[in-house]
Amino acid sequence: MTKALIMTITDWYESQPQPYKIDKVHLLVGDFTCVEPASLEFAFEVQTKNTFLEGAKLAIKNIPLVAFCHNCNEEYQPEIGLQYSCPKCHSPMDDIRSGRELKIDRLEYSCV
Ligand SMILES: [Zn+2]
To answer: Keywords for this entry (predicted)?
Structure first.
């Protein structure tokens, strides 16, 4: 997962007309991805050693799990590990609206 992230940033980096120093990578991580922020940070640090990304920090923003109940026509927030069905009608969760994303929000960089 970290590899895919680094590849995305590398693609961006290589498409720029001039090299930048990446200071910070802002990530959106869904609560339903089972990604541990601490282990993500660790993997990122290890895998960016001796690359243009060495020293860049990760800023992780959590995105809560939100599901949509077609029966009630409403969004609701399931409790991860406890209760995934709709709190009103108890229909099983079948439509996840957010909480599964792992993507780059934005990059902070400076000129070198
Ligand atoms: Zn419902």
So the answer is: Metal-binding, Nickel, Zinc
Residue 51 Cα to ligand 1 middle (Å): 49
| CA 89 / ligand 1 centre spacing (Å) | 4
Write out the residue range of the structural domain in which residue 57 sits: 2-66+98-111
For the chain, how many helices (H) and strands (E)? 2, 6
Name the domain count of the chain. 1
Instruction: Give the Å distance between the CA of 85 and the centre of ligand 1.
Output: 8
- Rounded Cα distance, 82 and 85, in Å: 9
Comparing CA positions, the residue from 58, 57, 5, 40 lying closest to residue 13 is: 5
In a domain, 17, yes or no: yes
Question: What is the per-residue pLDDT across 7-56, written as a single tens digit (0 to 9) for each?
Answer: 999 999 999 999 899 999 999 999 999 888 899 999 999 999 999 999 99
